[in-house]
Input
Amino acid sequence: MKIKQKKDNALQTKTTKTSWRQSEAVKCLKKNKMTYMFLLPGIILTLVFCYIPMAGLYIAFVDYNPFEGIMGSPFVGLTNIKEIFQIPAMYKAIFNTLKLSLLNLALVFPLPLIFALLLNEIRNIRFKRFVQTVSYLPHFISTIAVVGIATTLYSSSGIINDIRVAMFGAETERILFLSLQDFFVPNILILTLWQSLGWSSILYLSALSGIDPELYEAAIIDGAGKFKQCWHITLPCLSTTIIMLLVLQIGGLFTSNFDLVYGLQNTFIDFEVISTVVYKEGIENGNYPVSTAFSFISGLMSLVLILGSNYISKKINDVSLI
Amino acid sequence: MFVNKMKNEGKSYAVFKVFNGLVMLFIILITLVPYLNILAKSLNEGTDTMRGGVGLWPRAFTFENFRVLLADVSMYKAFFVTVCKVLCQVVGGVLVQFMAGYALSRRNLWGMKIANLYFLIPMYVTGGTIANYILFSRIGLLDNFWVYILPTMWNFYNVIIIRSYMQSSIPDAIIEAARIDGAQEWTLFSRIVLPLCKPILATIVLWIAVNSWNEWTSTLYYIQDPDLHTLQYKLMQTLKQTERMKALLMEAIKSGKNAEDIARSMKVTGEAVQSAQVIIVTIPIIIVYPFIQKYFVTGVTLGGVKG
Output
């Protein structure tokens, strides 16, 4: 008898609990109406400018007819995506994007870390501040202004040619660097480095300032030199930051700096990346389905890369961005 | 022995210190010289610049290059559009993002987790340029000033930073006290929460402002009307035009035409005027930069720490 009563009680509390939870949601909504209203602009903007374009990706799977609209056009499945792989220019753009990103990863990515390590050894605080301030500066200049500066530096009457003439004599031919196909990729790497060296070191610097000085004191007592301290204390303490930035970088392998590539392109240069092809095919030539299919594929590969590298970093180092 | 070791270390370390100082000086030079060079060229007489050899100081000083640019009415229009764009983006963005940040910072409220997920997904999956373009053409945002403002007003990355700042720096007790005193939600937000958020407010304002000032691809993608061109976009046009002209000249020379005639028939933007345009576009930022730099750094470290 007693047991049954207990069961009944339990059942009763259970039912009241669920109904209580539902009414709690409504109550909470009613009570904090204003707070939810605060979220409304964000929800609407995200819906219109993020989710609707996402649905617009459907255009990659139709034979688009502007008079019928996206929904009215016949569904063609993967035809557009197959078409991408028949156009050599698109092939090449994927290859170029990857080439640029990998070179960037190998040559440019480690330098801010080295810069931060070197800067950390500067003991004069005012000089250190000054170097920091100066090195962050290019980050705030627009990419197109960077292209403008590069155009001036490399022009036939520019400072680079001036230096070459001064070094090799007056007969030296003045080279138009920006018209050289072979110089295009190195130039992009140089300008990327120029613009990002200081700025990308900020996270390393803030991680460096967070390292417990006692660790170094202990290492000195153990007889570790500067190099050993760096290897056994500094770098392990920075590993979280390094891996985080590496994950981001790997996630971005299929994207490139459109502003810089497009800004530097001219008639002598034949170098397209994914984003410039999407722009030229899609907006300039109006070939919506194929260029959308193209950006869809590259977006998909990016997503796989982000999730993959994030998964690996979580496994190895317990650092996760997502 | 310990002291001895320190001394030995001191010797090679001293060499390293000198080397390190030199590296830093080199970085300062590499960063500043290009800009100083372009500044000198912008203040140098155009035909003299073509001879080459202008370093860090103008050889034939003149304001003519700036005068040429400032005589162009479209430059004023572009300046006006750019300033309007920056102001609208800052006001709209700050309002929307801080309101959302405040709402999301109350994470014990029902549904905030779902809202978070809803905002998080678009950070990894996007429709891309063309899908945006088609959408904008449908809702009349092409060739419309609001295309600069509305699509970028929401930025979840900023909202995350704002939210975590509010959660860590504004004590719940203050908010509770205000609520007990009968403050309505809007009063609470504008009178108590926003003033307490001043450091992060400065960061977000400057962040949006500089991005907005520097951004030019939205003009390239979505704007054709010359009345809506921005300063940055006009610089891009100038640079592209110069390149195109160079190419035409090369072709003309190859096919044996008189290059000078062609050059004269086209509107030429010389290197000096081009430099002046770069200066006009960058100078507002360069001037305020030393004073606002610290806010940017706070923002980056906050964002980095919170992921």
